[in-house]
């Protein structure tokens, strides 16, 4: 399977594609859970001529093996669903045992690590990303609830966690799980939203 991702406006030079994170996660996960294999290398960049634009457009590409399987959103019934959920839980636990360097959703492909170097830095990034004051301005949070949330997040900095991989998009999105003809899990797909 060939996947293409257009270069977003303002993307920095170098390894700008989220496919690098996905490739890294796939290679790490392939050691312990079923995934669609990727060749080496599986991520690259090309420029393709555009029919209307004068300049060619840059794309990242990713190559993955095509599997004979069907999405878990189709055909799971009765007892088979219970077995599937048990297997899904085992896979989630196995994925979350994969150690990572760094924390957060952003991946530094040049250094093969997640961008926040510590748990405390990750919390600071998340506080900024969530923009709690804006939620107060839009009256989605009261100032009191916002202050309590901020204090709680600050208190979490005192905790220590080892960084581990999380898929982020398969527990509720079963289309990212492929099944074989007997209903067994054949592969976990779409690692682009993985985080540590």
What does this structure look like?
By secondary structure, this protein is α+β, with helices and mostly antiparallel strands. Helices cover 31% and strands 19% of the residues. It contains five helices and eight strands. The chain has a three-stranded antiparallel beta sheet with strand order 1-3-2. It has a three-stranded antiparallel beta sheet with strand order 4-7-8, covered by helices on one side. Strand 7 (177-179) and strand 8 form a beta hairpin. 23% of the residues are buried. The model has no long low-confidence stretch (mean pLDDT 87).
Give a concise summary:
The chain is α+β, with helices and mostly antiparallel strands and 196 residues long. The protein contains 5 helices and 8 strands. It is 31% helix and 19% strand.
Low-confidence stretches: none
Label the structural class: alpha+beta
Radius of gyration: 20 Å
Number of helices: 5
How many E-type strands? 8
Give the overall shape, derived from the CA principal axes: globular
What is the topology, as strand order, of the major beta sheet? 1-3-2
Largest β sheet strand count, sense and barrel closure: 3 strands, antiparallel
Strand content: 15-25%
Helix content bin: 25-40%
Distance between the termini: 27 Å
Q: Round the mean pLDDT to the nearest integer and report it.
A: 87
Q: SSE order in H/E notation?
A: EHEEEHEEHHHEE
Q: Could you list some keywords that capture this structure?
A:
alpha+beta, 3-stranded antiparallel β-sheet, 31% helix, 19% strand, globular
